[in-house]
Structure formats: structure tokens, C-alpha cells
Specification:
The protein is mainly alpha-helical. It has four helices and no strands. The chain is elongated, with a radius of gyration of 16 Å.
Length: 87
């Protein structure tokens, strides 16, 4: 079926984007903690929770039966043929 397939592929693309974000956040966290002698760690841990906000938003949109496009992720997936146009 087109609707579940569309959102399943969106979820895969979003997961890859979150993985890349978490990798970059871990580097920023380690460098920031080392430079500030651990004090930066008190603030920078929030970086790891940031992907939770759009994930919840997109989950609500999918639950309501809406198609949506994730910025940068959906156009890249359509351009490479991994995600077809909505039907």
C-alpha cells in the first residue's frame, strides 16, 4: 500500500539523518566538554534530545493520515529514486 510504504521509507530516511546528527552531536559534546573541563557537558547533553521533537511531530502527522516532507531528507530520497511521488 502506498501510504504505509511512504511513511516507512520516510522513517528510514529520518533515522539515517538522526544517526548522522547524533554522531556530529557526540563530537561536539566531547570537544565542548574537554574545552570547558566538563562544565560544557552540563549544557550540551540537550543536543542528544533534539531529534525527539521532530520525530514526535512527524509521528503525529502520520497518525492523522497526512503526507509530509522532511526538509532535506525527503527531496534527497525522491531525487535518488528511493521514495516515489505521493499517490
Amino acid at each position: 500500500r502506498p501510504y504505509p510504504r511512504y511513511h516507512a521509507l520516510q522513517a528510514v530516511g529520518f533515522t539515517v539523518a538522526v544517526f548522522v546528527f547524533e554522531f556530529v552531536a557526540a563530537i561536539i559534546y566531547c570537544v565542548g566538554s574537554a574545552v570547558t573541563l566538563g562544565i560544557g557537558a552540563l549544557c550540551l547533553w540537550v543536543l542528544f534530545l533534539l531529534p525527539l521533537l521532530p520525530a514526535l511531530y512527524y509521528a503525529v502527522l502520520a497518525y492523522q493520515g497526512q503526507y509530509f516532507a522532511i526538509p532535506y531528507v525527503t527531496p534527497m530520497m525522491i531525487k535518488n529514486g528511493w521514495l516515489g511521488p505521493r499517490t
